[in-house]
Amino acid sequence: MVAACTHLDQIRDVTPRTPNGCEECLKTNGQWVHLRLCLACGHVGCCDSSPNRHARKHAGKSAHAIVQSFEPGEDWFVDDMEV
Question: pLDDT by residue (tens digit) across 53-70?
Answer without folding.
Answer: 999 999 999 989 888 999
